[in-house]
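Hi,

I'm pasting everything inline rather than attaching a file, because the server keeps stripping attachments. The sequence lines come first, and each chain or strand is labelled.
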Amino acid sequence: MLNRVRSAVAHLVSSGGAPPPRPKSPDLPNATSALPAAPPEKPRSPPARSRGGSAAPAKTVEARASFSRPTFLQLSPGGLRRADDHAGRAVQSPPDTGRRLPWSTGYAEVINAGKSRHNEDQACCEVVYVEGRRSVSGAPREPSRGQGLCFYYWGLFDGHAGGGAAEMASRLLHRHIREQLKDLSCWSSQKEVTHESLVVGAIENAFQLMDEQMARERRGHQVEGGCCALVVVYLLGKVYVANAGDSRAIIVRNGEIIPMSREFTPETERQRLQLLGFLKPELLGGEFTHLEFPRRVQPKELGQRMLYRDQNMTGWAYKKIELEDLRFPLVCGEGKKARVMATIGVTRGLGDHNLKVCSSTLPIKPFLSCFPEVRVYDLTQYEHCPDDVLVLGTDGLWDVTSDCEVATTVDKVLSAYEPNDPSRYTALAQALVLGARGTPRDRGWRLPNNKLGSGDDISVFVIPLGGPGSYS
Amino acid sequence: MLNRVRSAVAHLVSSGGAPPPRPKSPDLPNATSALPAAPPEKPRSPPARSRGGSAAPAKTVEARASFSRPTFLQLSPGGLRRADDHAGRAVQSPPDTGRRLPWSTGYAEVINAGKSRHNEDQACCEVVYVEGRRSVSGAPREPSRGQGLCFYYWGLFDGHAGGGAAEMASRLLHRHIREQLKDLSCWSSQKEVTHESLVVGAIENAFQLMDEQMARERRGHQVEGGCCALVVVYLLGKVYVANAGDSRAIIVRNGEIIPMSREFTPETERQRLQLLGFLKPELLGGEFTHLEFPRRVQPKELGQRMLYRDQNMTGWAYKKIELEDLRFPLVCGEGKKARVMATIGVTRGLGDHNLKVCSSTLPIKPFLSCFPEVRVYDLTQYEHCPDDVLVLGTDGLWDVTSDCEVATTVDKVLSAYEPNDPSRYTALAQALVLGARGTPRDRGWRLPNNKLGSGDDISVFVIPLGGPGSYS
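And the predicted assembly:
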């Protein structure tokens, strides 16, 4: 994902100069040690509540090592070094022991080919227990386990311009969701609002609160860069897939592909970005125009007619070129090279509060949205078999692998294992990561068809849908 | 549509008092007499060009009678009185003569049951000739018929708070589209832009220019109220359906329903409206909150937690009620009763430049968008039969008639006529209008199932798709 932020690192530290060493969260009293891997059978007990009001989640930020991988990988110091090796690019998966991820979820990852010092992807997989809130109307809250509920949680976080935001999100976002879901127990009194829309709202709010926490803590704790976030919540028969960024989730069901997310890039979000630039021209700092042109307008074209698109338009029309149109376009470039303000290629995610336009003090954050799009899949509406899976991947996978190719690999790998073999989903995740990475050949990583493999960090979850928990 | 604007008429005249009698456009030199019905075989010759630059269409505003109907109805003074009779509500169609609308298009309309003095719907059906522009780069334009092209055009305009905007749009919008399409001849030099996207852009721009013209001329010419606009353009094998408002277009093809538009209401556009209120709080005048609550918040609930939705959210979450949340919600009500700023129930369309919030000077126009959504249907991708039709209707039809009921009527009526009988589409339009109006019974207009018929103005176009022009 580093390529997505052009020269942005230089602007990350508003105080200027090299980033200071990361402090051990001295001002956060609730700091805990590293989270253990989630026990699949036993839900996590909730940590101590914060005193900061009902909306604030537990503010637990732990001391960060200079490089960390998901705790469920259970990497030894030696394993950590191998995972950090750009030359070997060894595929990492949780150890094949009796203690598996919930639902026997498969996971695999590989570091980039040298784009950034460390793997800036992060992942999280947890079973989270939510205590009920007694009342919404200010009555005292009394902890009571009987009112609670559990959700299953998977998160992929693709960092850019540093690994801090992805790491923080992987440790805390599910806690924000847990805090928001505490209100679910009060639902019955609001008949016009569906249970599903409350879960969706809880996830949406949690993303915003996570982003706000990053903004608050960025100075003290050096939350570097930003990250895309792709999150799955399973609760009461429904799968909620929340996406903010350019990771992707698809369900492969009986060979059929069901898209569960869409990517948010300068191209797909052109109209939202242009609208913001149009309504708040001060955000463009006199340097950019919110209008789009098929190519950069030249000064000699002043007064001539040229094609353009405004925020309300899906088609192209002509306008007479004015002085303002000579400014750099807010959205420019195509495909993977599309950029907002010539800087960033992804338009939703967490963090990036310090990100500035190259060679400028203009902040980019106002154009980035932390809000996810949430899609809901009712697991009870279909009788899933053990070969039906939800595949989550960062753009390292999808840059070189189509949905159809993933579906083919799903079929090929899973059919080679017994349906009740719990290791088949990790084997599938590994096959997907390997298929996107390729093998070293001709001074690069190459796929079997000799095209370039992905040099990006690659992370994949494979979540079996054939009966939650039945394979764990 | 009058119900959609609550007490808005009182606010229409910014000078206060009763509206003055409509002037005969004394300051527009190009004023012409009433447009004749379009000759179906022979394209209209273009009127004289204006001198106001290439983007300005011919500014022909004619003297308006106090009540007018589409010229293609060819109503005599007596016929005009019958069309204006709220008690009889006679269905109006073009006379069954040899001179039909293009493609043997069917049309029928009926006045409302007393909601407004006159029928505030308007309609237009034309064959429009577009002269080519020689160059986009400032070279002199030389009229040359050889460079031109023709498009077929149908428009339905559902006025509210007066008939002026609908009438003006029905007479001028296609001319704005024609002016925009003149640039099409320069297309080949811009390979990255498709022909289709240029037509879409031309239509989008034309809507905006029409709206701007209404704003400019509202003082001198009393452009009353606003209107929804549903427009169809047929050009070079493709049907473009542009919708701004709550009219609807569907294709019924071999019994299958293909939606060709969606409605723009405070409910469907909630997030756009909220975003605008959030980014430009001054537009809310301290009277409204951009947040949505399931019900009106009471002062006694201050400090308590309540469900809400913000502009980025599709789900509901909880927040602590603050003083600002006690303001009236920007979007309130449900279904047909949903309103923006407690005033208007439709969020896209033309005009409404004088519309104010009830008992306030707060303008509503910034929340209304004049931009249409344009859907494209490739007529060449399917072999259409004479029973395949595109049905356009104002909300008077759709308020009491489902898409499926329309499809049933299409089948029933068309199968009663020979496939080559050109009067079958008018018969179908009449049947649809009659089916929505009902018959007078029990002190109201009732449908066969005894439910209330539509008391609104009802207008319907039926456009046959089975070979453009083959039935004319």
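Chain B touches chain A at residues 53-55, 136-138, 180, 183, 190, 192-193, 196-205, 208, 275-276, 279-280, 294, 303-307, 309, 312-320, 369, 371, 374 (CB under 8 Å).

If the labels don't parse on your end, tell me and I'll reformat.
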